[in-house]
């Protein structure tokens, strides 16, 4: 039980005729300063009911409330400040963590139902971008968070592997490409061909017709076209997989846009049967005026389908295949309109489950304040960024701990972890600038700082040869440990909040606060000194390390025991 609930219970026992338990919980506040206790109750709202001054009500309540769970209750003007019984709370919290370990904070909200997570989803024959990195790490963290509260996450990589651009690519390859060059550096070569196509097509527009013809062949299953497409896809995917391996991210499905090529007819037939398709200059659209949205273009006048047509088929397929309780799309903010249209069309089709679809948008990663774009040839190769992060981590480890055994492995966990953490620590909608040196710092609000704190705690436990006893009750009542205890106690609610807001940063912030609280503790308290509280302090360190590691896991980071 959390502190607010304990306080609400005590107040409720006295005022049950006048306020509900829920109303009391709503009124309770968390005082900014520890001097004002752990929970505060403003008595204003009772003034009307009791026809007394709030100050008087506060004083009366303080007399009547059962003090079992509290060290003291102070009346400050109209406020009641509750100071929790630290012994009681610390005993219960540490016991729960020691017993449940990494399962502390698990919940069953999801009832084992499926949640599909559309994430990463880069485009074939193009470099995987910083935006795709964001989608990958946000989606991956959400998968861990949703699993923690009892959902079954299904991670889907909706590859951009279909569309008119493949007609262009085939034309370009046939005219200017070679097998050798593509094999050597698949993505850069395919990108070069694609860019070259556009340059030449400006002078020779008939190339566009050729490209359209090739895409049509591809859609119709022409063997030559399919073979090339398949090959481009395989080569690209191999490159993407290198990055996924580095990030430690796996997927349950790689069914991308191409997978839905033969599943769009059904959607279009349904739209026709429901009389939702309107003709507009030869194209088929769905009018969305009622939703304050532009019409959704479903089929072009030449019969070609679009991105949204494939997403409609995909949504339907996912509902049938996974019967999802929620379907989330971790995709950049710039596609907000697309997802509004997607949901609106499904709603028009009568699928109320479209309400369970959530676009989880995020902001841009910039460099030097500027947007990174592929078009202007300013491609940042993600693999290089990750490699540099690992190198930087390795250098710092070499300085700090030259004798570390598995240095390479740890450097990978720290360097890559730093990039992931940096991405997840701010509200996902914020834009942020990527400066590698700041990302991989061991101080400040960084992944390495949190990992380092965890390793420091583990080293204390090793030194003390301490393993907590599940049957013991470890009790602490000093104000130094209290800051840590409160953060341990808050963890289950933190997980729920992160899931509710689809916001990994809630977890990252908890990790930073916990690490900071522990480092303060470590600076002020002699943990290993031989007195009667030594075991309790070590149990606290153990609990802290356990939840720090769990925070990191939920973000997709490792927590090395030594670094
Ligand atoms: N391939 C798209 C892009 O790179 C992202 C796909 C997102 N998922 C989806 N179901 N539309 O912009």
Protein traits:
563 residues, alpha/beta, Gyrase A, domain 2, Rossmann fold, Isoleucyl-tRNA Synthetase, Domain 1, 3-stranded antiparallel β-sheet, 55% helix, binds arginine
Report on the structure:
This protein has 563 residues and is of the alpha/beta class. The chain has 3 domains: 3-84, Arginyl tRNA synthetase N-terminal domain (Gyrase A, domain 2); 114-365, HUPs (Rossmann fold), CATH 3.40.50; 382-555, Isoleucyl-tRNA Synthetase, Domain 1. Helices cover 55% and strands 10% of the residues. It contains 21 helices and 13 strands. The strands form 4 sheets. Strands 5-4-9-10 form a 4-stranded parallel beta sheet, with helices on both faces. A 3-stranded antiparallel beta sheet has the order 1-3-2. 40% of the residues are buried. The mean pLDDT is 95. Arginine (ARG) binds next to α13.
Number of separate domains: 3
Q: Separation of termini?
A: 36 Å
Quote the CATH topology of the largest domain: Rossmann fold
User: How much beta, percentage-wise?
Assistant: 5-15%
In short:
The chain is of the alpha/beta class and 563 residues long. The protein is built from 21 helices and 13 strands.
List the helices and strands and how they pair.
Elements (H helix, E strand, L loop, with lengths): L2 H13 L5 H7 L11 E4 L4 H4 L3 H11 L5 E7 L2 E6 L1 H15 L13 E5 L11 H19 L3 E5 L8 H12 L2 H6 L1 H18 L2 H14 L3 H25 L16 H10 L3 E4 L2 E4 L9 E4 L7 H16 L3 E5 L5 H13 L8 E4 L4 E3 L2 E2 L10 H19 L6 H18 L7 E2 L2 H4 L7 H18 L14 H23 L3 H20 L9 H22 L8
Parallel strand pairs: 4-5, 4-9, 9-10, 11-13
Antiparallel strand pairs: 1-3, 2-3, 6-7, 7-8, 11-12
Helix pairs in contact: 1-2, 5-19, 6-19, 7-9, 7-10, 10-11, 12-13, 15-16, 18-20, 18-21, 19-20, 19-21, 20-21
């Amino acid at each position: 039980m959390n502190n607010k609930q304990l306080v609400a219970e005590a107040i409720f026992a006295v005022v049950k005729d006048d306020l509900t338990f829920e109303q009391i919980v709503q009124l309770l506040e968390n005082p900014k300063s520890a001097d004002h206790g752990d929970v505060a109750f403003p008595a204003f709202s009772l003034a009307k009911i009791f026809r007394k001054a709030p100050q008087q009500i506060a004083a009366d309540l303080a007399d009547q409330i059962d003090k079992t769970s509290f060290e003291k209750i102070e009346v400050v003007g109209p406020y009641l400040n509750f100071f929790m019984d630290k012994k009681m709370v610390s005993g219960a919290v540490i016991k729960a963590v020691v017993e449940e370990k990494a399962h502390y904070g698990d919940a069953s909200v999801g009832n084992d139902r499926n949640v599909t997570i559309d994430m990463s989803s880069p485009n074939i024959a193009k470099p995987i971008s910083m935006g795709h990195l964001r989608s990958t790490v946000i989606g991956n963290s959400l998968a861990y968070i949703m699993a923690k509260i009892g959902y079954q996450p299904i991670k889907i990589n909706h590859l951009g592997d279909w569309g008119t651009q493949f007609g262009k690519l085939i034309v370009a390859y046939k005219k200017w490409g070679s097998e050798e060059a593509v094999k050597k550096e698949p993505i850069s070569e395919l990108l070069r061909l694609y860019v070259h196509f556009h340059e030449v097509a400006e002078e020779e527009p008939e190339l566009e017709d050729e490209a359209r013809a090739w895409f049509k062949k591809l859609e119709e299953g022409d063997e030559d076209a399919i073979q090339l497409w398949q090959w481009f896809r395989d080569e690209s995917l191999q490159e993407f997989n290198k990055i996924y391996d580095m990030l430690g991210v796996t997927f349950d499905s790689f069914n991308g846009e191409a997978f839905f090529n033969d599943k769009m007819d059904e959607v279009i037939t349904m739209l026709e049967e429901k009389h939702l398709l309107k003709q507009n200059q030869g194209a088929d659209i769905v009018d969305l005026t009622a939703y304050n949205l532009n019409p959704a273009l479903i089929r072009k006048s030449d019969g070609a389908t679009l991105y949204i047509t494939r997403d409609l088929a995909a949504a339907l397929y996912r509902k049938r295949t996974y019967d999802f309780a929620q379907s989330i799309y971790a995709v950049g903010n710039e596609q907000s309109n697309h997802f509004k249209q997607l949901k609106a069309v499904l709603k028009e089709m009568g699928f109320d489950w479209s309400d369970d679809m959530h676009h989880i948008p995020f902001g841009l990663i910039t460099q030097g304040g500027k947007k990174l774009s592929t078009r202007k040839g300013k491609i940042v190769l993600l693999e290089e960024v990750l490699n540099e992060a690992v190198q930087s981590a390795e250098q710092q480890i070499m300085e700090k701990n030259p004798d570390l055994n598995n240095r390479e492995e740890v450097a990978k966990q720290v360097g890559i972890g730093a990039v992931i953490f940096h991405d997840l620590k701010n509200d996902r909608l914020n834009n942020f600038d990527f400066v590698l040196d700041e990302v991989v710092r061991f101080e400040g609000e960084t992944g390495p700082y949190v990992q380092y704190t965890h390793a420091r705690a583990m080293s204390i436990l090793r030194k003390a040869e301490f393993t907590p006893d599940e049957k013991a009750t470890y009790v602490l009542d000093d104000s130094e440990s209290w800051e840590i205890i409160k953060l341990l106690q808050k963890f289950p609610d933190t997980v729920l909040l992160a899931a509710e807001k689809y916001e990994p940063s809630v977890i990252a912030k908890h990790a930073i606060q916990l690490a900071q609280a522990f480092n303060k503790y470590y600076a002020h308290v002699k943990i290993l000194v031989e007195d009667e509280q030594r075991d309790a302090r070590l149990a606290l360190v153990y609990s802290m390390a356990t939840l720090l590691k769990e925070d990191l896991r939920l973000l997709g980071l490792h927590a090395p025991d030594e670094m």
